[in-house]
Design brief:
- This protein has 277 residues and is mainly α.
- The chain has 2 domains: 147 residues, no CATH class; 97 residues.
- It is 68% helix and 0% strand.
- The chain has 8 helices and no strands.
- Helix 1 runs parallel beside helix 3 and helix 2 packs antiparallel against helix 3.
- It starts with 18 loop residues before the first helix and ends in a 10-residue tail after the last helix.
Length: 277
Amino acid sequence: MVDALTPGTEESQLSAVSWAAILAGGVSSAALTLLMLAFGTGMGFSVVSPWSNSEVSSTTFSLWAGLYLIVVAMIASSIGGYLAGRLRTKWSGVHTHEVYFRDTAHGFLAWAFATVLSAAVLASAAAQIVGGASAGLAQAGAAAGQSTGPMDGYVDTLLRADPSNRTPADPATSRSELARLLTSSLRDGGDLSAGDRTYVAQVVASRTGLSAADAEKRVSDVVTQAKMTADNARKAAAHLALWLTISLLIGAFSASLAATEGGGLRDGTWDGSWRHG
């Protein structure tokens, strides 16, 4: 092991970064991340699907999903960092402290590249989860005139007619109006105003044939259900953000540590610990 710069070396003229090794480690880490997330999605452990057009439910997030994200980060980042350290060029005439720092930096850079590369694939799925609480309500207003939309289930509940007193009129106009009203009122955790609640109850009573009291009760039940669903989505998004942060930090540490081992094995100096001299 060389402890000091060798006289006459041209170390200062050479780059300290082996980009080929970093790219190889980063691509490997990103590929393993996608592979493990796909497996976790199939097993029900992960809430972030690697496929951008897949349906993701932010309300199904759990502790096990968060722990699985950490396991994915540890394994994929460690392998990527190890490859970055093992495949880099050998630095001649460099102090062991500097070699240790460079290997650590190579692991970190491999992790950073893998994170950016993975984010390009996972961005739409992650955004769907993080923005699920408000996006669903926003889309309801735009989809009010379409056959399907996030608020259609609630509107169907409001306009479910009494079988003994079913009205034959087309409910399309009322559905669109109620969808827009619910979207604007319940966005960002809001609630129906007293006037809006009274109006909605009157529309429900006229469309379903329910009594005024029963219509008001149905409106209250549906509004409570919608607010609970949105609140659960917001909480799940917050939990997911925290778990993602933890997994990213652990991934960066794992990649950096594994790169020092890979670099030590590359130079033939690894014996389970670094000796600084």
